[in-house]
Amino acid sequence: MNYWLVKTEPESYSLGDLERKGEDCWDGVRNHQARNFMAKMNPGDLVFVYHSGKQKALVGMAKVISEPYSDPKAEEGEKWLAVDLRFETNLPKHVGLAAIKAADSLQDLLLIRQSRLSVMPITSSEAETLLKMANS
DNA sequence: GCCAACGTTGGC
DNA sequence: GCCAACGTTGGC
């Protein structure tokens, strides 16, 4: 099982929107590196959801429930990917960007190293650390 | 193929 | 509101 982190601007699409729908299509990713990561997603993978902008924090978990498929909103001739996510949980404690930056074991997170990337992999030990921070 | 100009993202 | 990072566009 793999862990991922996806970023979203809550003003345009928030974790709450996903929670209300239960399941939804995660589309609109228009960055090649992010697309290449999406291609490696598998059903059952867990996804940390990050709110950019004012919150700058991990706010919840979702689960990948489909294979990656061609983004239905992609323009003609363009190959982008989408995946279906199901809402899992709101994190008991939001894990803020500042806290992530302050954690020695999270310095390799692409969230820090590449601030504009919107889909990225998380190692299982990083996931463990983040989940501890979210539950303590 | 290079590079300047410009647009977008996202943190500060 | 500003700026850094980075992608895209278009002239040459």
Q: How would you describe the overall organization of this protein?
A:
- This protein is an alpha+beta fold.
- The chain has one domain: ph1033 like domains (ph1033 like fold), CATH 3.10.590.10.
- The protein has 5 helices and 7 strands; from the N terminus they run βαβαββββααβα.
- It has helices at residues 15-21, 32-38, 97-102, 110-113, 124-135, and strands spanning 3-8, 23-26, 46-51, 57-64, 69-70, 81-96, 119-122.
- Strands 1, 2, 3, 4, 5, 6 and 7 form a 7-stranded mixed sheet that branches.
- A hairpin with a 5-residue loop joins strand 3 and strand 4 (57-64).
- The longest helix has 12 residues, at 124-135.
- It is globular.
- The two termini are 24 Å apart.
- It binds a DNA duplex (12 and 12 nucleotides) through loops.
Main features:
ph1033 like fold, 5 helices, 136 residues, DNA-binding, alpha+beta, globular, seven-stranded mixed beta sheet, 7 strands
